[in-house]
Design a protein that fits this description.
The chain is about 45% helix and about 25% strand. It is built from 26 helices and 27 strands. The strands form 9 sheets. The protein has a 4-stranded antiparallel sheet, with helices on both faces. Strands 16-5-20-19 form a 4-stranded antiparallel sheet, sandwiched between helices. The protein has a 4-stranded antiparallel sheet with strand order 8-15-10-9. A hairpin with a 2-residue loop joins β1 and β2.
Length: about 700
């Protein structure tokens, strides 16, 4: 009572404290977002050379893309739309500068000639009905308010046609500007046909072991700075993680096994309505409705069916195939499930058959084509008539199927190929697998009436009809709590380590790396979709060595930050695999060149322990030195050397060379170089649309505000 009195007396003070705390929280949030609120970027997703792309329109496009592609994630849709709108923005700037426009008449023409549109508005006579299309478009515009989603989809379709046509005009203009000269055609002719013979002395880089050449971090950094345009990287984060799965314990599994064992035999249960308050409940062994009993206690819907030995789990196949009617096997485990299986019947049946059919569908039948208008009675009469025809002329079955069947197999003459027992719907399956080769008959299924011809059937094999009670083994609350405690303990210890991988190994876990995670990714290798982790990685307060734990429905992920790369020059560690081989080659070349001494090629080869050789008839188009592969620098030098002149050492792709030109065979001039001009033109026009967009994006001033919206 004394405590209650103190709380009542101090309640006003508590209210003031709580209010101040809430006020501070709100102010902190406003300060945090002040930059985005102040500069107006919160409503602009991007700005491309002064052209603003609105947030609302962008998000509508993302939502529409996700609706059209249900399997795509929010981040994948966002990235796809981002690429689309940036491409459109840089191109539209060019369209505006060049005055490229597409009139409404041209858009109408594109709509009318669109293959999808033509197919959708073709009448029963197979003729395109433009009036029907016009009515459809008018209705879309009239229903702008009542059906805004359909209107938005249509406008998006029209805009895509508009953008595509503008880009075509722009690309055609670029292609028209590609006009190689006759001189360039002449150059290409000689590039392909002039040939040179030369001698060489070559020392391959591989003759010097990598262990004898030291490449330091300073060497790599110096190289990166000299070639910084080639080694730029985007903003990324890297991590190591340990996954501790939520798995059931041995005790959890034993509990389920005990519950299944308790279902085998009959047992007395309490029944308040009975005279002696007891009632005998039949178990799995004596139940009269095996399938209903199994489904009552199973976590997975069950259906009794025949199994061949090859279809049974390998570790239990011998036991299950030899069960007799009424035998029960189990409980036994498969993955994280426990089975209790009862044999209902055994018999000899074929395991595979080959058949053909003619399907006569009727209105309302499963998957019936909308063009099918006959009712069930008419369909049955039609099927009976066809059955009489094919029984009289079995050899013409395929022809009848092609002309009369409503099924997709009609193009194959009704042939269904080989299929296994149980693969077809029950009525179809029973007819085929209880029949004989060449037997023809009719059955009804949910798809309609089938005239079936059995083309082949395998010899009968032993099969057993089984029904199972299948129980999932889930972690109990105690197990989940124990796993949670282990994960929390490991995460706590990881806070104080500078070697996450070593700590994980000591604790019996495996640390796995995930490198170069982009800001807008949500699907992480080994982890799967987890946007929460990416958001955490890109928090402004994040540092290398930070650790946290993420709880999922499948387990706990302990994440350790190993790298934080901002946009700019690639870090030494990341660039090392790319740059180190280049520096190694440069240093080896320097060591090799020091050995190249002498006045003749033979002297140089002897002093440098080089390989002597001759290359004959080598062209600039195919600059291949036998035994060494493509060496364009070396071959180009051979073309400009005077005969019998010895070159300075040349750093090739595979070796360092010294060469001596023997003979230059210049191809005779020809009267007409136009074919070579056309060849150059095609080469330069190929991929011009993609290349120009890439170049425009690299040149454009793009302000990316996605980080404000997509946290």
């Amino acid at each position: 009572m004394a405590i209650l009195g103190q709380i009542q007396r101090r309640s006003s003070v508590l209210i003031i404290i709580i209010a101040l705390a809430l006020f501070a929280f709100i102010i902190q949030g406003l300060i945090k977002n002040s930059s985005s609120l102040g500069n107006g970027n919160i409503n602009t997703i991007a700005e491309v050379d002064g052209h603003k792309i609105g947030r609302n329109d962008f998000q509508k496009k993302v939502a529409l893309l996700q609706k059209q592609n249900p399997g795509i994630s929010n981040m994948q849709a966002m990235q796809s739309v981002w690429n689309q709108v940036i491409n459109e923005a840089v191109l539209n700037n060019q369209y505006d500068k060049l005055g490229i426009q597409v009139g409404s008449d041209r858009i109408r023409e594109l709509i009318v000639n669109n293959p999808s549109i033509k197919g959708a508005f073709t009448n029963q006579q197979g003729v395109f009905d433009e009036n029907a299309l016009s009515d459809y478009i008018d209705n879309i515009y009239k229903s702008k308010k009542t059906n805004p989603e359909l209107y938005a989809q249509w406008k998006n379709f029209e805009n895509s046609l508009l953008e595509s046509e503008k880009q075509k005009i722009y690309t055609d203009m670029l292609k028209a500007a590609v006009n190689p000269t006759l001189k360039e055609g002449e150059w290409l002719y000689h590039f392909e046909n002039d040939a040179v013979d030369f001698k060489y002395a070559a020392v391959p880089y591989r003759t010097i072991p990598d262990s004898l050449v030291k490449v330091t971090k300073d060497d790599i950094l110096s190289y990166l700075k000299k070639h910084k345009d080639q080694y730029q990287t985007e903003e990324t984060r890297s991590l190591e993680y340990v996954f501790i799965p939520l798995q059931p314990s041995v005790e959890d599994k034993q509990k389920v096994e005990g519950e299944l064992k308790d279902l085998i035999n009959d047992k007395e249960i309490f029944d308040a309505k009975a005279k002696d308050q007891k009632r005998l409940e039949k178990g799995f062994k004596n139940t009269t409705d095996d399938e209903a009993f199994a489904n009552k206690y199973s976590d997975v819907k069950q259906q009794a069916r025949f199994f061949f030995k090859s279809q049974l789990p390998k570790e239990y196949a011998d036991t299950l195939i030899n069960l007799n009617k009424g035998d029960i096997f189990g409980p036994y485990s498969l993955n994280n499930q426990v089975y209790l299986t009862k044999a209902l019947e055994t018999k000899m049946i074929p395991d595979s058959a080959k058949a053909a059919h003619i399907l006569i569908a009727y209105k309302g039948a499963l998957r019936a084509n909308p063009s099918v208008t006959i009712d069930k009675t008419v369909a049955k009469k039609k099927a009976d008539s066809i059955l009489k025809l094919v029984r009289k002329n079995p050899s013409k079955f395929a022809d009848y199927a092609r002309n009369l069947s409503d099924g997709p197999s009609k193009t194959r003459g009704g042939d269904l190929g080989w299929f296994t027992y149980g693969q077809m719907v029950p009525e179809f399956n029973d007819f085929v697998f209880t029949g004989k080769k060449d037997q023809i008959g009719i059955v009804e299924t949910p798809f309609g009436y089938h005239i079936i011809k059995i083309n082949d059937i395998t010899k009968p094999k032993k099969a057993v009809k089984l029904i199972s009670i299948v129980r999932n083994v889930e972690p109990s609350t105690d197990t989940e709590n124990a796993i949670f405690a282990k994960a929390a303990q490991f995460a706590s210890e990881a806070l104080d380590t500078d070697n996450f991988e070593k700590l994980a190994k000591e604790k019996g876990y495996q640390a796995k790396p995930v490198m170069r995670i982009g800001r807008y990714e949500d699907n992480l290798p080994g982890i799967g979709k987890n946007r929460e982790i990416v958001r955490w990685l890109y928090n402004k307060d994040r540092n290398i060595g930070d650790v946290t734990k993420f709880d999922t429905d499948k387990g706990h992920i302990i994440v350790y930050v190993t790298g934080m790369q901002e946009k700019g020059l690639m870090p030494v560690e990341e660039a090392s695999p790319l740059v180190k081989p280049i520096i190694l080659k440069e240093k080896k070349a320097k060591m090799i060149k020091e050995k190249f001494k002498g006045n003749t090629l033979e002297e140089i080869a002897k002093n440098a322990s080089a390989k002597l050789g001759v290359a004959n008839g080598v062209t600039l188009k195919n600059p291949i030195i036998p035994g060494f592969g493509r060496e364009p620098k070396v071959v180009a030098k051979a073309f400009v050397l005077k005969p019998q002149e010895i070159s300075q050492p040349i750093d090739g792709n595979r070796a360092v060379y010294v060469i001596e030109t023997l003979k230059l065979d210049k191809a005779p001039d020809i009267k007409n170089y136009i074919p070579y001009v056309e060849q150059l033109k095609k080469q330069r026009q190929a991929g011009i649309a993609q290349d120009v967009v890439k170049a425009l994006k690299e040149k454009a001033d793009i302000e990316d505000n996605r980080a404000i919206i997509y946290q």
